[in-house]
Each structure stands twice: as C-alpha cells, then as structure tokens.
From TrEMBL:
Residues 1-29 form the signal peptide. Coiled coil: none annotated. It comes from the Bacteria. GO terms for molecular function: acyltransferase activity, transferring groups other than amino-acyl groups. Keywords: Signal. It holds the Pfam family Esterase. This is Enterochelin esterase. InterPro entries: AB_hydrolase_fold (IPR029058), Esterase-like (IPR000801), Ig-like_fold (IPR013783), Ig_E-set (IPR014756), Mycobacterial_A85_antigen (IPR050583). Gene3D superfamilies: alpha/beta hydrolase (3.40.50.1820), Immunoglobulins (2.60.40.10). CDD domains: E_set_Esterase_N.
Amino acid sequence: MKQYTVVMLWAFILSGFIGFSQTSQTAIAEDFKPSTVNQPGQEYPQVNSQGYARFQILAPEAKSVVVSLGLGGAKGGTVLAKGEDGIWRGTTAGAMDEGFHYYHVTIDGGVFNDPGALNFYGSTRWESGIEIPAHDQDFYALKNVPHGNVQQILFPSKSTNTSRRAFVYTPPGYHKDKSKQYPVLYLQHGWGEDETAWSNQGHVNLIMDNMIAEGKIKPFLIVMTYGMTNEIKYGGLASFKIEPFQTVLTEELIPYVDSNFRTLANQTNRAMAGLSMGGMETKSITLNKPEIFSHYALLSGGTYKPEDIKDKSKVKLIFLSCGSKERPDGIKDAVSTLKNAGFNAVPYISENTGHEFQTWRRSFKELAPLLFKE
C-alpha cells in the first residue's frame, strides 16, 4: 500500500506534466477558444477541439517564459517565444488529456500564475487552471435544473485547539422539506489540495444536481474538509499518521454535522471516499472505524484486500477506480478478489485519463448511484 500510494502521490504532484498524447504530425486545428476557466474577459489561455492549449503572456523585460503544463515543446514545459510587442506566445506540442489541469508560468526562474486564468488550490499553492473540452462534459455542465447549495461551516475542534472549516453540499429541496433526513458522504481531496477542490475543480455539486434531476441517484449530503495532509512532503508518507485527522473527522466533524444538519446519523447511511492521498486516508479510517462508515470508495487511492476487513457484514459497498493511464489491472484484480470473498465490490476505469480530475469526476459519477441503495 505504501509503495502504491507513493507512486500515485508523486503522479498527482506531477499531474501538470502528464497526460500528453504526442500528435505533432497532425495539423493543428485553428479553432482555438478561450478556456472556460479564464478570468472574466481574458482571451488566453485558449484550447482547440483537438486538446491543444495556447498561451500568451505579456512580459516585455523577460528573457525566458515557460508554461509548466504537459511536455509541450521541451522537457518540463511549453517554451514560449517572444514577439516584438513583448508578448510571449506558444502552443503545446501535443494534445492534453480531456478535463481540468493545473499549471503555472516560470518567468526568468520565478514561478507565477497566468493572469488570464482563474486560480485553484493544488500542489500546496493557488495554481492557474485550464479546462480541456471533454467529449462527456455534459454530466458536470451547469444546466437549468434545480440546484443544491454548497455552504461553508466552521466547526469547533478541541483536538487542534481551533475552529476548522468544511463545505457541505445539500441537495435541491433540502431547505423546503424540514422533515426529511439524508445520508452523508464524507469526501476527501488529494495531497496538495484542500476542502475547495471537489466543488471547484471536481464540480461535484453540479454532478449531483444533474443526476438528481435525471432521477439517477438518491439525494444525499456531501461533507468536504481539509485532510491535514499538505505538511507531508514527497517521500515522507512512511511517517504520516492518520490519527490526528481521524480524530477531527470522527470525533468532531461528524458529530457537528449530525447535530446541525438533518442527517440519518447511523453507520448504514454514512460513506467515506477520497481521491489519491484522500483515498489513503479513507482506507485507514474506514478500517479503523468500521462502526462509522458502511460505504467505502478509493479513487486513484489504493485498494482493499478481504483480510483488511474484520467484519464483512458492516460493509455495504467497496468502490475502486483509477484512470486507464494509471494501474487499471491493480483495480480490476483487487475487485475480483473482493467479489470472490463475498463483498459488494465495483470497479471503474476512466478511459484515456491519468491521475487527474477528469478521472475523479467520472469516478464520482459512477459512484454516486451506488451509494445508499435500499
């Protein structure tokens, strides 16, 4: 598990540098449009129908400008060329994977964000973001359907001697029917991210809204909080201790949510899931606290073995997923073993994606209908 997690974590750290399919022999279609996550009114960065990205950076005094997204142009990033107008321009050498990617700009050795793009918290800093159009993006599109609410809560934490933050998704209709109670999914981000990731980068609220409107899922609450992971540096996972976060989650956050929201406050109606390092946290806590959670999901975050689980009767679902560019055979083999041992285990492999948010968006879409089934 540790070796697998280190590999996956390192892949996540470098997620801005993977995901290329080299297509330099293909003519680049000149149908570039502004990325959908640009700053208001900003024309660049742009993306085309093939998945190429194009950048423009105004830096008239600079001697070197490199965009650290993919392998475009040179190892380590896309090298931009300076024009007589002081604007640096460049296009990736190949098409990016569909979906969301972090990136930043290195100007004469200094690291900056692209002023044309919105910022997203990832890699332990606010990074620029770009969205490569996906063929299946409709499931997380903003549509004219009833919408739920994502609200910030501040909950007291005696163990850390402070108030901590979480975001709670409540489905459409939650505030109208005051008698209805809901199951709860506790959903964790990956290393370098925080509690904003699943709603900002993952669009989990829009995925929920759309699937509820289509009648594909049973409505439930989602709680997203910081996993206390970003102090862990690469190579330091062997010393990571789950207990501090486990205390915050199980002894402080869950009781607060159950006291302040209309939840079905029992093990049968409580799930935990996480991507990447959040998957590692999910595995550890679900195994340590089987009396709290009944549905487990690891998204590019490892696997379970039958012998890991002491009481099979307490586990209603084990969902394991990853991208096809990760280790899909490991997921398939683990699920087969779990099924043979009598577990309700479900695999999902996201085609043509790696350790990135399109994998996890798709994974959540497959997971949600499986949760809290009668």
